[in-house]
Design a protein that fits this description.
Elements lengths: L1 H36 L6
Length: about 45
């Protein structure tokens, strides 16, 4: 059981990292879309 818990703990970090990366990418794409709509630069 201890090995199962350790394996789950190690494998959850890539999943959390991927989720946060996708969240950041979604927010950036939303900002890009709004900037295009308002005809302005993103930065």
């Amino acid at each position: 059981m201890n090995e199962l818990m350790l394996g789950a703990y190690i494998l959850i970090w890539p999943a959390l990292t991927l989720w946060i990366l996708l969240l950041i990418c979604k927010a950036v794409l939303k900002d890009v879309g709004e900037a295009k709509k308002e005809n302005r630069d993103l930065v």
